[in-house]
Amino acid sequence: MAALSKSIPHSCYEIGHTWSPSCTLSTLQVTAGALEVSFKIYAPLYLIAAILRRRKKDYYKRRLIPEILQSTSFLTANGGLYIAFFCILRRLLGRFYSWSAGFGAALPASYIAILIERKSRRGLLTIYMANLATETIFRMAVTRGIVKPLKHGEVLLFCLTASLYMFFFRCKDGLKGFAFSALNLATNVDDVFGWGRFIVGKEEIPSHSYQPEAISSSRSERAGDPPSLQPEEGRASSRGSAITALARRLIDTLCKHGPRHRCCKHYQDNCISYCVKGFIRMFSVGYLIQCCLKVPSTFRQVFTKPSRLLSLLYNKENFQLGAFLGSFVSIYKGTSCFLRWVRNLDDELHALIAGFLAGISMFFYKSTSISMYLFSKLVETMYFKGIEAGRFPYFPEADTLIYAISTAICFQAAVMEVQNLRPSYWKFLLRLTKGRFALMNRKVLDAFGTEASKHFKDFTPKLDPRFMLVPPGMDVDLS
């Protein structure tokens, strides 16, 4: 508490908006820059989302522009109001405290800004910022020696999270209706149950709709189709198509004839081909996703340097994400089949073991962000399940408060110890403020002992002595 009461007498011009001595002009400049950047972010985002979700013409005429403007206003307010409250707090308190430049100014700014955003998006934004704030607090604790980082900790966290996710996925109605989606911008209600079905397959759902009898009958119908129904077309087919047909028939035979436990519901495949197909399918998905993410950054360079196209296709990260998703699915399916063979039954508890072992696949694509995000979603899911069971209280405005506090924590790190902030979020803040966030006089803030200028040793703002409260070069002690 004593550290929180320490302060320095500098003005907001000397520390914050060092490019201009005017608080009003600085606020307007930051707001204008944030408005431009926010519109460039949300306009294509909403347009692409509308195209992918096949929105009707009525949406483009009546809802698209208002939704873009509303989200743009939210992000603009978050940036513009921060610098406004930065100056207001300095005038109200008369000094700068270790918490006022970051947390204190960002808290009211973030709270007002999130109220501007649509309610359907607040939950998603809250989860993202809470995840980021948790990671930031952990890094701060490591820097201060309070906790020690665990080697491969992100992999272990992912293993535990995947284990519980897969267990809930296997349980009847375990995840239905409790997850929230980054893709569903309209309702903010995500069905992780549906995502789980997409990743590991509907064969692992307890209430699988396929029946052995139905499959057997369909097989017999296909087997009974006489090949002589297509005499002329079949004879006229090329040798290539004949080889293709033969290969397909051979693969089909290998897949359907082999070891499959009676409890396994992958009726179209044996256990081996079931795992192999799962790996190939999700490897392809991961590879294509990573390729698509890199297309915007390399698109312009392809015309001047065609060789960049090869680097896009054969990038190491493309194969890493593909190996991560593919091995996750194949390990999960393989372990589930193995346990069915060993125990001679199909049990939801198998998902705990299979999910944990599948989590080891993150060694191919280590990501603290993915682990923390999924863990946050799991905590949220379990909390809402507790609310439905009557064991946890429900707070209607909890998402708004959590967003404001989480964002304030991240801004505190961005001001006082940027080395503990996720690099991608720091780049986002620089983009939103047109680089002005890096113009703060952090050498003065070093007095609080957080190494605020650690990454800004070569930067010293050129200040006008007429608007300075503390003479240049004067040593100032905390009071």
Strands of the biggest beta sheet: in what spatial order?
Answer: 1-2
Evaluate the radius of gyration: 28 Å
Q: How many runs of DSSP E, i.e. beta strands?
A: 2
| Number of helical regions | 20
Strand content: under 5%
Helix content: 55-70%
Low-pLDDT residue spans: 177-191, 208-236
Task: Report what the structure shows.
The chain is an all-alpha fold. Helices cover 65% and strands 1% of the residues. It has helices at residues 2-5, 12-15, 23-52, 57-62, 64-93, 100-116, 119-143, 153-170, 192-200, 212-223, 231-236, 239-256, 271-304, 307-313, 316-343, 350-358, 368-388, 398-416, 423-432, 442-445, and strands spanning 7-8, 96-97. A two-stranded antiparallel ribbon has the order 1-2. Helix 7 (119-143) crosses helix 17, helix 8 runs parallel beside helix 17 and helix 13 packs antiparallel against helix 15. The chain starts with a helix and ends in a 34-residue tail after the last helix.
Summed up, what is this model?
By secondary structure, the chain is mostly helical. 65% of the residues lie in helices and 1% in strands.
